[in-house]
């Protein structure tokens, strides 16, 4: 006997199972079954496809008028951090830029101070609340970065908190070391970078990826290259915050270093975008950040897709440049500002997001882990359309309903 049948699904979204990220035109290909059925046993998908009465189960959920999809994956977050930066809103209103705030010792450096001062327990509680918010919004796969310590002790504190969350909730999580996230006050970039490189052999036991913020006034292309090479030599996969604000050639460096992903890419060069053609490096686009930084120009998602690039979309949730952990909101911004089609958006937050962080997730085909969302929405276009609110009605992890939103008032 099976455990669960989800029946009468108005639209069942089935991204393709694949070994490689979906690229170029493949991103617009998505199977959407009308009147679908999903069958689950022992936490795994037994069947997903057109309506059938062939299966029996202990429990049935009627999804008439609803959309069902794989649980979402948030492939870029700064989940574990101390404090918050609402005081920077006033500076932003006065036109002080993100990099200017950082230069004045604020921005990332103000979160570093708060994160150093917070106990592991305080960091855990805060990150747990934010993670639970993500889960309530339909996310069951998360990448979580360090980077607010800039010293051994605090970076490890953040990574341990991230692991504790993954263990407690048995989630698909990946942990990323982002030691070179900013240059601490009074230090030189090159010399601090060497300290982070020397730290890699120890950090390797705690982190799946090594990441770096390559940006004007932060780390140069040369410093980033040395770091990525050192991580690659140790057998760590690499990521890079690339071309977020200024076009430094971070995308080309990511491809050269076989990065699993290159993230941001708002200012990526034409040459970098051209090189995506023959690369499996996933361009992780973070349009919620462009929105929150009040920029006019967004990443050239269409150009990247035209060049046969692989793209994913993520929140970049962090206390400074993108203060939302609602990936559905970012799906709406991607529709409007990146001009992605609904199919491209769904692939970008499921299967391709999983590829960007080396997870085997984002699909609900036979044999897959039964991580599923039932959406209070009549069709798949509706979710990026009705923006800023939560459409996830039920979140199912390993076949168990762990979130069940009931709007009836108490
Ligand atoms: O705290 O500002 N861009 N790192 C690079 C960030 C944004 C996070 C932050
Ligand atoms: Zn980031």
Describe this structure in words.
It comes from Macrococcus equipercicus. 4-imidazolone-5-propanoate binds at residues 85, 148, 181, 244, 321. There is one protein chain. This protein is an alpha/beta fold. It has two domains: 2-70 and 363-404, Roll (Urease, subunit C, domain 1), CATH 2.30.40; 72-356, TIM Barrel (Alpha-Beta Barrel), CATH 3.20.20. It is 34% helix and 22% strand. The chain has helices at 88-93, 98-103, 108-117, 120-136, 152-169, 189-203, 221-233, 250-256, 270-275, 287-292, 301-306, 327-337, 342-349, 351-356, 382-385; strands at residues 2-14, 31-41, 44-50, 57-62, 67-70, 72-74, 139-145, 172-177, 209-210, 237-242, 261-264, 282-285, 310-313, 372-375, 392-397, 400-404. Strands 1, 2, 3, 4, 5, 14, 15 and 16 form an eight-stranded mixed beta sheet that branches. The chain has an eight-stranded parallel beta sheet with strand order 6-7-8-9-10-11-12-13. Strand 2 and strand 3 form a beta hairpin. The longest helix has 18 residues, at 152-169. The protein is globular, with a radius of gyration of 21 Å. The two termini are 36 Å apart. The mean pLDDT is 98. Bound molecules: 2H-imidazol-4-ylacetic acid and zinc ion (ZN). Residues 78, 107-108, 111, 213, 241, 244, 318-321 line the site of 2H-imidazol-4-ylacetic acid (IZC).
Radius of gyration: 21 Å
- Let me know the number of strands: 16
Report the major sheet. 8 strands, mixed
Tell me the CATH topology of the largest domain: TIM Barrel
CATH class of the largest domain: Alpha Beta
Strand portion = 15-25%
Mean pLDDT: 98
The termini sit apart by: 36 Å
CATH architect. name of the largest domain: Alpha-Beta Barrel
């Amino acid at each position: 006997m099976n455990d669960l049948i989800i029946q009468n699904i108005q639209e069942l979204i089935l991204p393709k199972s694949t070994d490689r990220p979906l690229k170029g035109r493949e991103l617009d290909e998505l199977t959407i079954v009308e009147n679908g059925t999903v069958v689950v046993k022992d936490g795994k998908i037994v069947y997903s496809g057109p309506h059938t009465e062939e299966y029996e189960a202990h429990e049935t959920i009627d999804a008439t008028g609803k959309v069902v999809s794989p649980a979402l994956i948030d492939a870029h977050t700064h989940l574990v951090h101390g404090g918050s930066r609402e005081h920077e809103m006033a500076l932003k209103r006065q036109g002080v830029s993100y990099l200017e705030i950082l230069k004045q010792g604020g921005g990332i450096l103000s979160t570093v101070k708060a994160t150093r001062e917070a106990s592991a327990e305080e960091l855990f509680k805060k990150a747990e609340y934010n993670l639970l918010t993500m889960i309530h919004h339909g996310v069951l796969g998360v990448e979580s970065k360090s980077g607010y310590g800039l010293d051994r002790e605090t970076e490890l504190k953040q990574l341990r908190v991230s692991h504790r969350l993954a263990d407690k909730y048995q989630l698909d999580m990946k942990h990323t070391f982002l030691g070179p996230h900013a240059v601490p006050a009074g230090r030189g970039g090159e010399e601090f970078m060497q300290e982070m490189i020397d730290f890699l052999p120890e950090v390797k036991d705690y982190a799946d990826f090594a990441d770096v913020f390559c940006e004007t006034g932060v780390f140069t292309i040369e410093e980033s290259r040395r770091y990525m090479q050192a991580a690659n030599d140790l057998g760590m996969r690499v990521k890079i915050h690339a071309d977020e604000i200024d076009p430094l050639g971070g995308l080309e460096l990511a491809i050269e270093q076989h990065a699993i992903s290159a993230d941001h890419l708002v200012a990526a060069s034409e040459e970098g975008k051209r090189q995506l053609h023959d690369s499996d490096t996933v361009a992780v686009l973070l349009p919620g950040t462009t929105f929150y930084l009040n920029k006019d120009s967004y990443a050239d998602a269409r150009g990247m897709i035209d060049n046969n690039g692989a793209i994913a979309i993520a929140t970049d949730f962090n206390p400074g440049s993108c203060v939302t952990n609602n990936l559905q909101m970012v799906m709406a911004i991607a529709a409007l500002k990146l001009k992605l089609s609904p199919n491209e958006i769904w692939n970008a937050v499921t299967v391709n997001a999983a590829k960007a962080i080396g997870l085997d997730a984002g699909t609900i085909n036979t044999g897959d882990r039964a991580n599923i969302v039932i959406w209070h929405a009549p069709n798949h276009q509706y979710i990026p359309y009705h923006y800023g609110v939560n459409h996830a009605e039920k979140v199912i992890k390993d076949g168990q309903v762990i979130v069940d939103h009931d709007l009836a008032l108490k």
